[in-house]
Input
Amino acid sequence: MDTTTTKPLIELGTPCLGEAEKQALCAVIDDGWLTMGDRVRRFEEVFAGMHGADDAVAVHSATAALQLSLQAFDVGRGDEVLVPSLTFVATSNVVIHCGATPVFVDIESMSSPHIAIADAERKLSSRTRAVMLMHYGGYMIDVAPWREFADRHGVLLFEDAAHAAGMSGVGTLSDAASFSFFANKNMTTAEGGMMIVRDRARRQRARALRAHGMTASTLDRAKGRALGYDVLDCGHNYRMDELRAAMGLVQIERLLGWNDKRRTLASQYRRALMRFAPSVGVPFAGDHATSAHIMPVLLPAGSDRQSVMQRMRDQQIQTSMHYPPIHTFSYYRKAFHTASLPQTELFCERELTVPLHPQLSLEDVDRVVAALSDSLRA
Output
């Protein structure tokens, strides 16, 4: 008789959902107003307050937020935007959708995989209009030197803060910051995003652009606060609905606590790796400010990552890779012919993402590290 006990699956990332989210969604159904309304507005205000901002603009995805940040500042045809290649492809896709050209910039180093100012200086041209920073894995970029860079060269500064919800200082120095509430993020609304835009006029433009450039919302007209509307800009349907906002209002109450738990788990990973798998590196210093969105590690040079991932999967542990370099994707190779980004490519050859989310225990972390060590020895 087979007495083998199958260990429970350790997922890469999983949302924290429960009765409070169910009740919040049911309340929306009971109220009968589903599209952008009072809950969306409350969610914007709470999110802005958490991040020390005057206001925020809720949208249906971080991609929409990134797109509107460019459009609200008139980035478009003929412009170039400096972007990292080590990020999710949406960061550069939105540049193309605005009619501009993404120019890929290398990372600083294996231990600091953030977009590098030195390479950005080399990639500047007379057409450069903006720089897009990305807080990789939730590890915060020092934005101050980039603010000086942007001011010195007369370009705009944007933050892809998809991994950085709940972090202090995001959006305070840049022209706009974009956040994600996708299902695998530190807080979720299933799909959804948020913008922080410092300039009030540009923020109001982004708010209008998310709803077709209209001067009055559906709720305004339904409540009799407006009898008609004008269209002042060519916008989009990027609105957030009340269901997502209701979830967001529940989730944001626990966001800071979840981020603390993630940081505790990340510290445990560092200790366990140092003890049981010292050949595995971890980017960034242990005291680097982070939301600990993901747990990236660097396999020893020459490791067969696919075999390691399969062996860990055989032990009921999910892993992933964040991210394949954008400039190596087929579409981007054909369309832009980007030169080699040696640090980015080396980092991405060795990066492995191991599980990290608030439902993990310290014992789960030890099990992941043990499986990784075994897989490398195999």
